[in-house]
Amino acid sequence: MRKTVRQAAAATVHLLLAAALAFGLWIFITVLLITAVGTLAVVGAWMLPETVLIVRRIAGAKRAMTARWTGQRIPEAYQPINGTIRERVRTAVRDPGTFTDFRWMVADYFYGALVALAVPLWPVGLVVDGFWTGLLRRTPVVLPLIVRLADLEADWSTALLKPSPKARLAARVEELAATRADAIAAHGAELRRIERDLHDGAQANLVALSMRIGLAKRAYDRDPETARKLLDEAQAQAEKALTELRNVVRGIHPPILTDRGLVGAVRALAAGSGLEVTVEVERLEEDGLRAPAAVEAAAYFVVAEALTNAAKYSGSARASVRLTRVKRGLRVRVADEGRGGADENAGSGLLGMRRRVAALDGTVEMSSPVGGPTVIDVLLPCVW
Fold this sequence. Notes:
Elements: H1 2-40, H2 47-70, H3 85-94, H4 96-118, H5 121-135, H6 142-161, H7 165-219, H8 224-252, H9 255-271, E1 276-282, H10 293-314, E2 318-326, E3 329-336, H11 350-358, E4 363-367, E5 374-381
Parallel strand pairs: 1-2
Antiparallel strand pairs: 2-3, 3-5, 4-5
């Protein structure tokens, strides 16, 4: 009985919120009418995109409310409304998400009213079920109906608020366009970095090496001791150039990934980070499966960047890394116990990390409230 009462109480809260939102939608009809009249009169056309944006927020609140009850997120798929007034109006009218939201609003005017009428079932149900279970020793009857009504309301809202295939396709095209732009930017930045490293490092050392060999050749016959000294310097210069080249190669694809695999490479990063790092691996080494080289490289750089930032800025001595093989790909989670407040625009390398992941159609979620902790969660899609 207690469990049933708790479930019914939670269902009642959900239904009360749904009823309150339905009541608010009835008041919102006035705004819709004013917008319709203003748009038809042309002079008030600017109101249409603004009203659509308000409807998006209302629908977003309903999605969040429904997700809290069902435990499943309802995705959104909207086209951005910006530009001139004409462009904003055109986008607001043509966006499939607008039709989805208004369809839900019209339906909610009716089933929301039914929900509002059903809310008084809670006190009645408590009395009836108390009598039913207390005197007749039977299972509750009315309270489970309240829970079922909340389930039905959430099912209707979920079905109506899910974006249409056309809307999902349009949102996906926008996402891929942004991802492609980020990938091009990341690729360009990487090429500039490699060019700079080669020019300032290996190339400069090779030029110095060539000059020393030339001087040694001239001095070989008349001053063998000086020639020998120049050749020693040339050898040191050659070793330095090789070191610079290894660093450039390591920046493109770390050799340690080939030698030890992702898990071994990440453990090496953890050991050399200067922090107390725990590395957890879930279902990644089963059956000898490995992610594609590009995915492993991206995961490696994510961990390297995150641990570097933790060591520099977090003020914490501890961090954790978790590598998990999931159905859709590879999940990387790096957390520290520091002061938080990480900012992607502060030159901490987080923006570069996001672009590198976006180039593989992956996602980055970061939580870093002031006071900590900082958690970076990356999903890199791949086929195992």
